[in-house]
Specification:
The relative contact order is 0.22. This protein has helices at residues 14-27, 57-77, 95-105, 120-125, 129-134, and strands at 2-7, 30-38, 85-92, 110-115, 140-145. The protein has a single domain (2-145), classed as 3-Layer(aba) Sandwich (Rossmann fold), CATH 3.40.50.620. The chain has five helices and five strands. 39% of the residues lie in helices and 23% in strands.
């Protein structure tokens, strides 16, 4: 079994990782730990959503290094099996699309994502990554609901 666990760097999203970590050994699963960084680092607010917009190369390299360090720390903190865990850093202005693409490219059986709770206004203004990933897939998607941030 192959499990893709998407994390965004927030403490809340690690709740899903903590839960999934308990099952990884039981299922003898291969783990793909993924963080997607924004592909438009230096052009935020420029109205470029939907198109690749290369930003400041130095900022992107730094963000990718930070993401990789974070993922390596998670492997250690949650005692994920190093021989069966791959740390992946995606780069896109649409995290849900990147998660789905990586899942398809790696033959993933289960995607685990966290569903950050939003206020009613937040729900109106932006689709959640979780709701976008959950749409019909070739694999199972587990969306872990999280408590609304205070």
């Amino acid at each position: 079994m192959r499990i893709l666990i998407a994390v965004d760097g927030s403490a809340e999203c690690e709740v899903s990782l903590r839960g999934a970590a308990r099952w990884i050994g039981v299922l003898n699963a291969d783990v793909y730990l993924l963080q997607v960084i924004d592909g438009c680092l230096s052009t935020k607010g420029a109205g470029n959503h939907g198109a690749w917009c290369p930003g400041d190369v130095e900022a992107e390299v730094l963000a990718m290094k930070k993401a990789r360090t974070y993922l390596d720390e998670l492997v250690s903190r949650y005692e994920l099996p190093a021989d069966r865990t791959s740390c992946l850093v995606g780069r896109s202005d649409n995290a849900a699309d990147e998660i789905v693409t990586i899942a398809q490219n790696n033959g993933i059986d289960l995607i685990v994502v966290s569903g950050h709770r939003r206020s009613w206004l937040g729900q109106l203004s932006k689709d959640s990554v979780c709701s976008e990933v959950v749409s019909p897939r070739d694999c199972v998607v587990l969306c872990v609901p999280l408590a609304r941030a205070a």
